[in-house]
Design a protein that fits this description.
Blueprint: E1 6-8, E2 11-16, E3 26-29, E4 37-42, E5 48-50, E6 53-65, E7 70-72, E8 77-87, E9 91-94, E10 99-101, E11 116-120, E12 127-131, E13 138-139, E14 146-147, E15 155-157, E16 162-167, E17 169-173, E18 176-179, E19 183-188, E20 194-197, E21 203-204, E22 213-217, E23 221-223, E24 231-242, E25 246-251, E26 260-271, E27 273-275, E28 281-284, E29 286-291, E30 302-312, E31 316-321, E32 330-340, E33 342-343, E34 346-347, E35 349-351, E36 363-373, E37 377-379, E38 391-401, E39 403-404, E40 408-409, E41 411-415, E42 428-438, E43 442-447, E44 456-466, E45 476-481, E46 492-502, E47 506-511, E48 520-530, E49 539-547, E50 565-575, E51 579-581, E52 594-596, E53 603-614, E54 618-620, E55 630-642, E56 646-648, E57 659-663, E58 666-669, E59 674-676, E60 686-690, E61 693-695, E62 698-699, E63 708-710, E64 722-726, E65 813-816, E66 822-825, E67 834-835, H1 843-852
């Protein structure tokens, strides 16, 4: 029992040369009924070790100040009735300007009746440590909620009170902190900092410039769960949670939950799993604001502000509900976010999900760089009949790559996961400069029940969807209606400067349920679809399918309709077996769970300056047995098909051929490239082409090995469809220039001199086949031209050496040799030589002679 101390108003001050509590020991402050706050300082040089019970005779708040360090052992307990504030600062500053210092003890302190307003730290602030045997947290594998029944509470304050640790570092090794329905604040500050205490008693780090680190290891935990859940704040430079450690704010009753707020100037790391003695995985490292099963209160929010967030080995951050109350909002603001991998307990990632009647919350991410890999996830999905949440990512660069066995594809998704799902899928909205989805990874919305699929919207400067997983699954953007779902799938909307889909990657809106597939809308300056994977062609797919039961191969026919595909781009290139398809065929060639649907195919509308298909490129709205699809292509410059490429609206079974409408100045086809609206057991379709000229393609009654335009039917010629070629009517006299009737006298147009100069050059250069802009694609048939700009530098002119021409000597006569040949000579060697003409005829003379005629 500690008696005495100095009383000032409702404050009781104690000073100790040293202060510790041994294991299983106890210390009681005997405070009077009027004492509300007990303020303690250690003025010696030894740290404080508390491994027993610290209590007060009556309820009071306790401040404990020791700049040498404070250590709480496994058996440390609090029984104080009020809040507890432990700090390794050097002094407490009060509202009236007085200080209670643990280092400046030569002058007795001026005690005050006011409240503390801040803590002053020294040049080397020491850490506060909490040790223990771990939290004993594990997952309830029936609900996947957190099982807290056997959790060790550790250092605990009374319900609805506050526990504060503020030191030069905060380290929990197996230690636990508990404030039921209350607040926990952990703050780590740097040298010579002043940490303000606000009027409401919370710490205000705004004046702090340098922070220290905080760590949770060996299943350490901080928990403010309760009837409504309390608030948990962590402030410092770095936060490291590992080995199944956790920060928790669970709502367990009918009150609204509290919030978890993390402000770390440098970084946050979550990794590792709690493992028992037999090697079983029990609990991953987590930061959770959760509505517990049967609870009706609203879940709290999780807000994270940091420079770097790294999640791995199953580390998870979530705002979720397993009860009747809605989950809170998860918001992450970071310069860099990296999520990798997972464990058999689940994927690493960020989650705002529901598994009961409460609705999922929102997940909002704002970052410079987001990397999602090795099967990790960002998810706002619903595992219940309730609504999935909205998911928004704003980033400069986003990379979603690969997957992992047992975890599936790395993904950003919002979808209804169960057949009982009746809610609405959350919208997924991606805003970025650079988006890369690769190696089977995906961004996805979808429905497995009666709830409508959410919209997937991507606004980006450059988008690259590339490659499949090792098993052949495509990377890309997906909106999928599962076999038991009855609602319509969500639309996929893409706005970009450049869109590249290569090596088997895809954008897919598909349905295998009774609900129709969503639509795909692409607006971009440049669209390139190229190549294929082992099981998939690159491209855009809006498909209506039928599920197959894997156990016996039975097909369950569906008559839902495929979605529509709209592409508006300056230039569109579909090459190397890439495809744009609104058919009712699967987008994968080897999917044992999907067969062609019986519903109508969708419609394809492509508008651009240049539309080119090369090397088996395909645009198709073909159908297996359902209603026909339509293809409409509008090119301002040309439409070109090369090397076995096709535009098709064909039909199998008894479905009629579809409609193809083309409007382009020039339509070019070569190397057995076709435009077809053929049928098998029905009428052929319709092909309507409006063009100034068609090159290489011929209208034929049936397909050949040449480049064809057909609307045939296997039933015979009487079932041929209609092919219409519209060419503009040309008036031969239109645009002719009337010439003058009186001929021009060209005499005055002829130069009066015939002097010629040397060394002049006229050069016309091209661009060497390069496109006009760097973000435009090469067209395979471009003629090489050298458009390199001429240099603008000034070249010093060196006067050329001029060799005077040899003088022209006039002939003075001629001679005749023995062979009878006559020769002009410059001199007359003999008087008998004949004289030459003495009149010199020059250019002017010739001109005058010409003008006189």
């Amino acid at each position: 029992m500690i008696e005495g101390g100095q009383v000032s108003g409702n404050n009781l001050f104690h000073s100790f040369e040293a202060f510790s509590i041994p294991r299983n020991g106890s210390v009681t402050f005997n405070n009077g009924a009027n004492i509300q706050t007990i303020i303690n300082r250690v003025t010696g040089n030894s740290p404080t070790h508390i491994d027993g019970l610290l209590r007060t005779a009556r309820s009071a708040d306790v401040f404990f100040l020791n700049p040498n360090g404070i250590h709480f052992g496994e058996n440390a307990r609090l029984d104080i009735g009020g809040s507890f504030f432990a700090t390794t600062g050097e002094s407490l500053r009060f509202a009236d300007g007085t200080e209670f210092s643990a280092t400046a003890t030569a002058t007795p302190p001026l005690l005050t009746i006011t409240v503390p307003v801040g803590v002053q730290y020294g040049a080397s602030p020491t850490a506060i440590t909490v040790t223990g045997s771990g939290s004993n947290l594990q997952l309830d594998f029936n609900t996947f909620a957190i099982d807290r029944a056997n959790r060790n509470p550790g250092l605990t304050v009374a319900p609805r009170e506050t526990l504060v640790l503020a030191g030069g570092g905060i380290n929990l090794t197996g230690g636990n902190l508990t404030a039921e329905d209350g607040e926990i604040e952990l703050v780590s500050v740097g040298a010579n900092e002043f940490l303000e205490i606000a009027e409401d008693g919370r710490l205000n780090p705004d004046s702090v410039e340098h922070f220290g680190n905080i760590s949770f290891q060996e299943t350490a935990s901080a928990d403010v769960s309760g009837r409504g859940g309390g608030n948990l704040r962590v402030i410092g430079a770095n936060l490291n949670l590992q080995d199944g450690s956790a920060l928790l704010s669970n709502t367990e009753g009918d009150l609204s939950g509290g919030n978890i707020t993390l402000n770390l100037t440098e970084g946050i790391t979550l990794s590792g799993v709690r493992v028992d003695e037999e090697g079983n995985l029990l609990f991953p490292s987590r930061i959770f604001a959760e509505v517990s099963p049967r609870a009706t209160g609203q879940g709290g929010n999780v807000t994270i502000n940091t420079s770097s967030l790294n999640l791995s080995q199953g580390g998870q951050i979530a705002a979720q509900t397993f009860g009747f109350g809605d989950a809170g909002v998860l918001e992450v603001n970071a310069d860099e976010i990296l999520a990798l991998g997972g464990t058999p307990l689940g994927p690493t990632g960020l989650f705002a999900i529901t598994a009961n009647l409460g609705n999922a919350g929102e997940l909002n991410v704002k970052t410079g760089y987001l990397g999602v890999g090795e099967g990790s996830q960002l998810s706002t999905s619903s595992f219940s009949p309730s609504n999935a949440g909205q998911l928004s990512v704003v980033a400069d660069t986003i990379e979603v790559v690969g997957g992992a066995p047992g975890l599936g594809a790395s993904s950003i998704l919002s979808r209804g996961e169960t057949s009982a799902y009746q809610g609405t899928d959350g919208e997924v909205k991606i805003t970025t400069n650079n988006l890369v989805v690769a190696n089977g990874a995906r961004i996805q919305t979808g429905s497995s029940g009666g709830g409508e699929g959410g919209q997937l919207q991507v606004n980006a400067t450059d988008i690259q969807l590339v490659r499949t997983s090792p098993s052949g699954s495509a990377a890309g953007l997906f909106s999928f209606v599962s076999p038991l779902a009855t609602a319509r799938g969500g639309d996929i909307i893409v706005n970009a400067e450049t869109l590249e889909i290569t090596d088997g990657a895809q954008i897919v809106s598909a349905t295998a349920g009774s609900g129709n597939a969503g639509n795909i809308s692409i607006v971009a300056n440049s669209v390139e679809l190229a190549g294929e994977g082992s099981e998939t062609a690159s491209g855009l797919f809006a498909s209506a399918l039928s599920p197959i039961r894997p156990s016996d191969g039975q097909v369950f026919p569906q008559d839902s309709a495929g979605g529509n595909i709209t592409v508006d781009s300056n230039q569109i290139l579909v090459r190397d077996r890439a495809t744009i398809s609104a058919s009712n065929f699967p987008s994968s060639s080897n999917n044992p769970e999907l067969a062609p649907g019986e519903g109508s195919a969708g419609n394809i509308t492509v508008t651009g300056n240049f539309i080119e298909l090369d090397n088996q490129g395909l645009i198709t709205a073909s159908t297996a047995t359902g209603g026909r699809g339509n293809v409409t292509l509008t090119a301002n410059d040309f439409l070109q098909l090369n090397r076995h490429s096709n535009i098709a609206a064909n039909a199998q079974g008894t479905a009629p051929g579809g409609n193809i409408t083309i409007d382009a100045p020039f339509v070019i086809g070569q190397d057995n490239s076709d435009i077809t609206a053929n049928a098998v057991n029905a009428m052929g379709g319709q092909v309507d082409i409006t063009a100034n000229a068609i090159f290489g393609l011929q209208v034929r009654d049936e397909p050949t090995d040449l480049s064809d335009i057909t609307a045939s039917s296997e039933l015979g010629a009487e079932f041929l469809g209609m092919i219409t070629i519209n060419s503009p009517e040309v008036d031969p006299s239109e645009g002719l220039v009337a010439l003058p009737e009186t001929p021009v006298d060209i005499a005055n147009l002829i130069a009066q001199g015939c002097a010629a100069s040397e060394g002049n050059v006229f050069v016309v250069t091209g661009r060497g086949g390069l496109p006009e802009a760097p973000n435009q694609t090469l067209r395979g048939v471009a003629v090489w031209q050298d458009f390199r700009p001429l240099g603008t530098e000034t070249v010093a002119q060196v006067p050329p050496e001029i060799t005077p021409p040899k003088p022209v000597i006039e002939a003075q006569g001629w001679i005749t040799d023995a062979n009878g040949e006559t020769w002009l000579v410059a001199q007359t060697p003999h008087p008998s030589l004949h004289s030459a003409l003495t009149t010199v005829i020059d250019c002017r003379t010739l001109n005058s002679l010409g003008n006189s005629e």
